[in-house]
Amino acid sequence: MQNDTFLRAAMREATPYTPIWVMRQAGRYLPEYNETRRKAGSFLALAKTPELACEVTLQPLRRFALDAAIIFSDILTVPDAMGLGLHFVEGEGPKFANPLRAERDIMALEAPDLEKLRYVFDAISLTRKELKGRVPLIGFSGSPFTLACYMVEGGGSDDFRLLKTMLYSRPDLMHRILATNARAVIEYLNAQIAAGAQAVMIFDTWGGVLADAAFHEFSLAYSKQVLAGITRTSEGRVVPRILFTKGGGAWLEAMAQSGADTLGIDWQTNLGDARRRVGSSVGLQGNLDPMALFAPPEAIEREVERVLRSFGAAPGHVFNLGHGVSQYTPPEHVAALVEAVHSRSLGAHAA
Ligand code: CP3
Description:
The chain is of the alpha/beta class. It folds into two domains: 1-25 and 64-70 and 282-351, no CATH class; 72-239 and 250-264, TIM Barrel. Helices cover 48% and strands 13% of the residues. It has 15 helices and eleven strands. The strands form three sheets. Strands 1-4-5-8-9-10-11 form a seven-stranded parallel beta sheet. Helix 12 (252-256) links the parallel strand 8 (241-245) and strand 9. The protein is globular, with a radius of gyration of 19 Å. The chain binds coproporphyrinogen III. Coproporphyrinogen III binds at residues 23-28, 37, 43, 70, 72-76, 93-94, 140, 156, 203, 205, 246, 324.
């Protein structure tokens, strides 16, 4: 591989500079993405056509010197393959035609037939071929809990009222969904690794909305099951496992014991504090506020410097945003970000 800095940093090994990739790096802030999506007809058609998913995965790498690619897909492909009927309503985000609420439906829920997700694995194999070893390819899944949020609510939510009603009144049903999701996610991630994914990330986007005890019982416990079930090595190399809980700052010590190699950190947590709390047991990925990218390049450079300094001069930092890049971000500002991370970290933690 030409550039394995991301894989090394995610395993806390020394690198000549801090590697960077950006959550949602393939997406609507890039005009070429919008063009390809228009050709595909819809977001889902784009995600379900391996050649087009491969094309948009590679688009940000043509513009920016990113150190990793992430396969273009979505976390909601799994519940879709479970039969919940995913569609996207323009301006409203994802919706499920058959949300999971009735006890009968919950008891009948099963991990999906992986054939229904073949398009994801095909997109991964194709993208690996097209990357020609330039940078590693990251596979991903939602956490069992974050998937359950969408499955029960039937889409996004401001307060997760339906989900929390079930969690507090019928914890047995919630556990049943989570156990099935955990099995599904393990099989899904292992099939992604078999197809060529060289690292995997679990997006626990909504774990942070839970009360302390509920986070441990309904989110982290099932992410742990997944982490324990993921294939450890592929193609003769360890496959780094990244766990990202948005709003998870209160639980970093516990997350560091989860079996993850690197923790994704949102923009509200100081990386230096996070490092002191988790010690050298895990790497950290993050955590520039995505909104900082709306400021001019000089301000972006200043904020990059701040994030790099907060982590300090040690191996084990993968630079990223604290959450996905906004669709309104000027692409030139992402160029400034990548350039600043590389130039300002050079030699900071060489071997
Ligand atoms: O990071 C990447 O470049 C890889 C692609 C990726 C997408 N979704 C593409 C996408 C990844 C890693 C995701 C993960 C995802 N999807 C998460 C977890 C990460 C996070 O943001 O916390 C979640 C919660 C989802 C569910 C989802 N998908 C929502 C809520 C939406 C609509 C909201 C929005 O941004 O419009 C999507 C659609 C989606 N997934 C888009 C993209 C590029 C935009 C759809 C479009 O092109 O119209």
